[in-house]
UniProtKB/TrEMBL annotation:
Motif DGA/G: chain residues: 181-183
Keyword Nuclease: no
GO molecular function, one term: hydrolase activity
Residues annotated as the enzyme's active site: 40, 181
Domain PNPLA: start-end pairs: 5-194
Sequence motif GXGXXG, location on chain: 9-14
Protein name (database record): NTE family protein
Name of a matching Pfam family: Patatin
Alphabetical UniProt keywords: Hydrolase, Lipid degradation, Lipid metabolism
GO biological-process terms attached to the record: lipid catabolic process
Gene3D superfamilies, per database record: Cytosolic phospholipase A2 catalytic domain
Lineage of the organism: Bacteria, Bacillati, Bacillota, Bacilli, Bacillales
Organism, scientific name: Ureibacillus xyleni
C-alpha cells in the first residue's frame, strides 16, 4: 500500500491539518506515506510532518500569533487590505500590486518559525518525495518544486514563496525568477503525488467548497473536508490567533477520526490480506520449485540406477 498526502493551502486555517496529522500518527498511517505535496501553509505543514514530530507541529500552532506572521510593513496598506474582506485572487487586491513582489507584511515571523522548528537539512535528506507548489510571477505558471536533495537555503526560499500571497507578502526570488503563493494556480497539488505512483491519495482540504475535478486513474483519491467552515479570507486565511488555531486542530483531529479512520482501517485490512496472498503465492512458488527439484533429482537417480543395472548385465 503506497499512500500519498496532499496538504492544501489556506493560511491560518492550516492549524486544522495539524489535527489531521495527529490522527494519522495515532492510526499509524504515517508509516505507509510514500509521497507528499503541499501548497502555501500546506507545504509548511508537510515539512512539519516530515520532521517526524507531531509535538513540534502542535507547538508551532499553539504558540502562533498574528504579530508573528503578519508583521506590518505599512499600516495604511494593511488597513486597505483588511477592509477588502475578499480572497487573494480578487481584482481589488491586484490593484494594490503597484510594484513587482509588493507585499504589506514581512516574512520575519515565518522565518523564525522555520529556523526554530524545522530541520531543513533533515527535510532535504528525506527519501519520501516532497513537493511544494509555487507560481511564477507575473506569468502565473505553476511549478512543483521537489525539495529532496536541495540546499537548506533554497528550501527556505521555497517555503516562503509557496505562501507569498500577493498583496499580503512579497514575492520570493528563486534562481532568478520571482515566485508567489502556489494556491493561485494549484491549491491541491495531487499531480506530483499521483506521478509518484501512489495507490491512495489523501487530500487535506481547508475549505468546504474545495472540489477535485481531475481524474486520477488507478489511484483512489480521498478528500477530507472540514465539517465546520474555517472562515473566509480575513476570518480564516489571515486569522493566526492561537485560540482559533487550537480549535481548528481539535476539529481536524475529530473529523479525521470520525470520517477517515474507518476508511484507513479498511485499507489496512485489505493491505494485510494482499500481503498474505502475496506470501501464500511466494510459498506456493517455492513449493512448486522444490517439487520440481525433487522430481528432477528422482529422475536423475533412477537414470543412474538403470545405467548401473545395464552395466551389470
Amino acid at each position: 500500500m503506497k499512500i500519498g498526502l496532499v496538504f492544501n493551502g489556506g493560511g491560518g486555517k492550516g492549524a486544522y491539518q495539524v489535527g489531521v496529522m495527529k490522527a494519522l500518527y495515532e492510526l499509524n498511517i504515517h508509516h505507509y506515506v510514500q509521497a507528499i505535496a503541499g501548497t502555501s501553509v500546506g507545504a509548511l505543514n508537510a515539512a512539519l510532518f516530515l520532521n517526524n514530530s507531531i509535538e513540534t507541529a502542535e507547538k508551532v500552532w499553539q504558540t502562533i500569533s498574528p504579530d508573528k506572521i503578519l508583521t506590518l510593513k505599512g499600516t495604511e496598506q494593511a488597513k486597505k487590505l483588511m477592509n477588502l474582506g475578499v480572497n487573494s485572487s480578487s481584482p481589488l487586491i491586484a490593484r494594490l500590486l503597484k510594484a513587482e513582489g509588493y507585499g504589506v507584511f514581512s516574512r520575519s515571523g515565518l522565518l523564525e518559525i522555520i529556523y526554530e522548528n524545522i530541520n531543513l537539512q533533515k527535510i532535504s535528506d528525506k527519501k519520501i518525495p516532497f513537493y511544494a507548489t509555487c507560481v511564477k510571477w507575473p506569468t502565473m505558471e505553476k511549478t512543483y518544486f521537489k525539495v529532496n536533495g536541495l540546499a537548506p537555503l533554497k528550501i527556505e526560499k521555497i517555503l516562503l514563496a509557496t505562501s507569498a500571497i500577493p498583496g499580503v507578502f512579497p514575492s520570493v526570488e528563486i534562481d532568478g525568477v520571482q515566485y508567489v503563493d502556489g494556491g493561485l494556480s494549484d491549491n491541491s497539488p495531487i499531480q506530483p503525488v499521483y506521478d509518484e505512483g501512489c495507490d491512495f491519495i489523501f487530500v487535506i482540504s481547508l475549505n468546504r467548497d474545495d472540489t477535485i475535478e481531475q481524474q486520477f486513474p488507478n489511484a483512489k483519491v480521498i478528500q477530507l473536508v472540514p465539517k465546520e467552515a474555517q472562515g473566509g479570507f480575513v476570518s480564516g486565511t489571515l486569522d493566526f490567533k492561537a485560540t482559533t488555531a487550537q480549535r481548528r486542530m481539535v476539529e481536524g483531529y475529530n473529523d479525521t477520526m470520525e470520517i477517515i479512520a474507518p476508511t484507513i482501517r479498511t485499507m489496512k485490512r485489505e493491505a494485510n490480506l494482499f500481503n498474505l496472498m502475496e506470501k501464500f503465492s511466494e510459498e506456493e512458488k517455492m513449493f512448486q520449485l522444490n517439487q520440481k527439484q525433487q522430481t528432477d533429482q528422482f529422475n536423475k537417480d533412477m537414470s543412474d540406477l538403470f545405467a548401473q543395472l545395464e552395466k551389470g548385465k
